[in-house]
Amino acid sequence: MTVALLAAGLAGTTCARRQSPNVAQPRPVVEWAGCAVVFKGPRCGLSAERKLTLWTANANAAKWTFAADGLPFNARATQPVQEGWQVSLDVPAGAKRIESFRPSEAQPVWALEIAETTPSPDLDALVAAGKRGDRDAVARLRSLTANASPPRRGPAQAALGRVLLARGEMYDAERALRAAMEADRAEGRLSDEMRDGDALIWGLVVLQQRFADARRILESLAPTRDQFPEGSVWYAHNEGLLAAETNDFRDALASYRVVVRSAERLEMSAHYNGGAEDLARILVILGRAKEAAAILERLPSKSDPCAQASLTINRAEAFIETTVHGGEVDNRRVRAALADEQRATDVCPDPHRRLLALVDAARYALGTGDAATSDALVALLRREQSAKDALARAWRDDVLGRWSLARGDGSEALKIFEDESGIARGAGLRDERFRAEVGAGESLLALGLRARGIARLKAAQTLMERMLDGIPLTEGRGAFLSTHDEGARHLVGGLVDGGALSEGLA
Hints:
By secondary structure, the protein is α+β, with helices and mostly antiparallel strands. The chain is 65% helix and 9% strand. It has 23 helices and 10 strands.
């Protein structure tokens, strides 16, 4: 959507240069962001800061003038950004409509209706408390949703949904967020509908792997996306999430790069940081963990405790991958990242994130041969039963299976990897299934069941070849193969040990 609009804006500018001065120039495409709430129209409900950012590809935008309700005012800043112009505005108090004009033209080239918003500090405080683990916040939010007036009911449902999502209570969170989206749509709150849809899609994808349901929610948001520029950024971010979690890394990379570029030109720092973080997460999967770690280290801390927990998880995983696969990351930095991850996930009440922190610490201990630490962490993992989603259960099984193999218990390892394979197959988790097949193959070889082990390792190779289809040639296929080579190594070993030298060589 953004690319198409940008192309249209550039085309309009080029045509304008060729026309005579007497022919009216086409109106340029203008992107804008900074509203606390965007209402149908669109109308921009400003925050207390009253700041807006515009971006256009029009070459003459630096000379535009601005008016609020017909009275001129000056832009705070104008600068070239991404082959276009970024304009920062401080909207005068009480303004109902702002407009921009080209020199010597009476008709505005762009206009936006302005609305006032009423902050909800009580809801914000309850969400913050709930995300820190305050159980009373949930009860108070439930009471608010039952007794609020219609204009407040939707925001109250959204607040309740976010807190429940942070607690990992997906069933009730989904109900609250769906109710919030219905209220948003009925009352014309475009940005709230996108924001609540974003939260719901995240929960469906990450906590439950319900990709088809998430896709339906995303498609329902397309009409909303098209009504205000920021909607395209929200939409692209969710397209990237769905692509990434269904192993379509080509589209995931493209979507997250759209988010980063759009957020940069519209000064949307939260979206920029979120897009960069998710882009780094894909680079880790592609074997480019060193690049990912560099991106993640530059990102600032987040005020939302659960968002901060996710950032520390992604950062720790990037460091672990660089260490496990021969990178240059100092082990002291990895241990510091793991400590940050532990602290952050202790604050966020989400059991999914807490389990990931435990899995990461155990993976690192196993990868560095720290038997005492891995034994203690595996004991904790064996008692950990809070994770209900397929992805977290698969990761937990992978660590337990690797630990059993390291202790020489091939039978126990095989049982665990078979469970992981079944979970991953049922949820469409291709990378987790690949690792389960490799683990099962290793376990069978350790048990002396060479033919069966080779069959499982060949199945892993087939899965890896399918995963390669989603990775562009220029985006690190070689790096991806280097981080998924354990199946090939064990397969060659099994073939050679069995006397199939020519097949092993092939």
